[in-house]
Amino acid sequence: MSNKIIEIYSNFITKFPVLVLVIMLLISVFAIQMAGTIKTKKSDTKSMLPQDVEAIKTLNSIENEFGSTNSVSFAVEIDPLYTSSDEVRDVRDPRVIQYTNQLSELALHTDNVIDVTGPASILKSINGGLLPQSSREIQELANKNGLLDRYISKDYTLALVTIRTTDDVDLSKLEPELEKILQQVPKPPGITANLAGSVMESQKMQTAIEPDMAKTSLYSLVGILIIVLVLFRSIKYGFTPMTTIIFGTLWTMGYVGLIGMGLSSQTSGVTSMIMGIGIDFGIQLVTRYRLELQNLSRLNEHHPQFQLGHREAMEVTLNNVIIPMLTTTLAALVGFQAMSLGRLTFLGDMGTMMSYGVAASMIAAITIVPAIILIIDQVNMKNIYKKLMNRFEVRT
Amino acid sequence: MDPLQKSLVRLAEMQRKHAKLLAVLVIIFTIILGIGLKDLTINSDFRKEMPKDLPIFALNDRISAKFGGEDTVVIAVQIDDSVDLNSAVRDIRDPRVIQSLIFLDGVLRDESSITSVTSPATFFRGKSEVTPEEITQTLRNPQANAFFSRNYKMTLMYVTADIGSGEEQINNFDEFIQKRIDYTPKPPGVKFGITGGPTLRTTIFDLLKSDAVFTLIVAAVIILLLLFVMESSYTRGLLVFAPLSLGLIWTMGTLGWLGIPLSVATVGLSSMILGLGVEYGVFMLSRYNEERAKNIGQLDSLRTTVRGIGAAIIGSGLTVIVGFGVLAFATVPMIQHLGETLALGIAFCLLAALFVNPVFILLEEDYEYWNTHRKLEKLAAKKEMHTQRGR
Description:
The complex is a heterodimer of chains A (396) and B (391). With 396 residues, chain A is an alpha+beta fold. Chain A is 64% helix and 7% strand. Chain A contains 16 helices and 4 strands. Chain A has helices at residues 2-15, 17-35, 54-66, 94-108, 119-125, 135-144, 171-184, 198-209, 212-232, 235-239, 242-258, 270-302, 310-338, 348-366, 368-378, 381-395; strands at residues 71-78, 113-117, 158-165, 191-196. In chain A, helix 11 (242-258) crosses helix 14, helix 13 runs antiparallel to helix 14 (348-366) and helix 13 (310-338) runs antiparallel to helix 15 (368-378). Chain A is elongated and about 105 Å long. With 391 residues, chain B is α+β, with helices and mostly antiparallel strands. Chain B has 2 domains: 3-39 and 233-389, Multidrug efflux transporter AcrB transmembrane fold, CATH 1.20.1640; 68-201, Alpha-Beta Plaits (2-Layer Sandwich). Chain B contains 12 helices and 4 strands. The longest helix of chain B is centred in the C-terminal third of the chain and has 57 residues, at 333-389. The interface between A and B is large, with 94 and 100 residues.
């Protein structure tokens, strides 16, 4: 039964390659449009953790009770350039406390900031609302209780100003605002100040991974092309399997855009992987097709009455490769989907996107690739060239 | 015939000639690599999978080192609404709760590995006795408010310690905190919970272990069933699956030998290797069966299969290795490690399909041939006996 369906399908593809090509190209145009809508998204680590584990339940209830736990910090570190200068050597220096006070006040007036806590605000709260002015006064207050432990390091080289933000804060907008504050407020000599906090890590990482997909995809494409050209030692048959991954990747990205999945740090390398896996289908198809062409030419020699050609070779190829391809596709889908079955789903999105990629590459390998091969093989390039040259000669 | 195809034909001839010897060599190779499995470890430190080259990560690491951020356990004390006693605590600022925290604060600070403890109890340090009135008065301080949730149903205690990076040390520290909480006197209507870096790491470590086994079993069972269905035979399904399993053992064993731990990135590695590596065996077996169905002999069928499919799977295997290998250029180490280990896994599956699959196919066929003839001989002898005896 399944063999009969495959035979009917092979017959259709080989009979109407141009129609198949046109349909698939139309789908590709739509996919290009959809792929253009893909956005880079922030990876939400919390959602990848199981919610029924005690430690995570406690973490969630802290968030529920205390509101947003999103926080960014200004990290003020001592970094003196010269020995025996009057540069800051202890973050409890009144100039640093004054500086953190200015940073806190400006940060508090930034959009989406709920509150700001730092050495200055703590010292003010335990000093009757006034900022202590001398080093001795600050040191005395700092030693009074452990409240400053979370804002001034034990070796007094690092101070933190913690900025609590709303849950829905757009970090791409908040980051430049806070950077502007750091640039505007004059720093005491001998210190450096930077943005810190785990929330900023994901923001910086998001910026860093943006060129990753293009880079790894390009390297992958070049590497694959070299292998395929060496394998087939033919420009035509070297480039033909490449159409599997070109269309497979394009359709995958189109679908990802259509469902609004978005790319994250986990899925940044997915295209190169889809290419590496998807090309297999193209290689298997082209290898078998070339082998069948050899077999048919031998058969034609012995039985000239048959005169079997490219179409028949492709039909035999499709009849024989579809089942193994389907098996391997299903197995790969099982492997990728199993990644989401665990309780930690850090790479769940990647597995899902790879599943789309493998399925799309398999579809490309049994639709557009045989259609392209047949069209190219059945068109006599020499005749076309001759015709063009004749026209050219007549005109001149 | 090009040099690759010539080599593959020679390989096929060797496999046909020395099938049993090759099977023994495969077993020895598997045992050697398999020994590495006992050294395979799991790393639950999520930060090791992050791009440490980015300045923000270096800065945050410095902050963690100086403030002990990574080793901060958070004890959440919250109202338990399920307790309906009259004496149950209804406001977390209740002096009885603060007395509990003062007790816990003292007990924890006595431990040498604990570097700091911060909570509402911090305000009462150095006082030998604290009255409920004093507690109420002190907690009016706006700075104390930061420790309480807006509706006064929860308060937090931050415990920073120098635990170290070993999973056992983290586990011991978690247990130590839990024990101290257990014998802290608590008023009715409050419950204590623990979270924070070390606790989450222990949780992730346990989950990684169970996930690695669970995803492997699920993928293996489904793929095996799929092979049984698609190949319409248990034997043929196993013929594809067995070399694939060897490829997986070799990969995991190599990771163990090289001391590369499994992490959040590579925990699903086994299921992916099984899913991707199955391809080579499927093509190899289906082509061999196709040749045998034409009544072509074992050696010629194997020559055609290893030459034709071998070249194709070397090409497709190499492309998969390239596709995964280029991830070594990704920014995020999690993706780099995933790419590298998958490339290794695919390389082993490819080797298994090329060198082991044909050997297993031949041995199975020889066994079936021998078994069928043995049964036939038995039946023939029985028939002969029946003929001699008559009815």
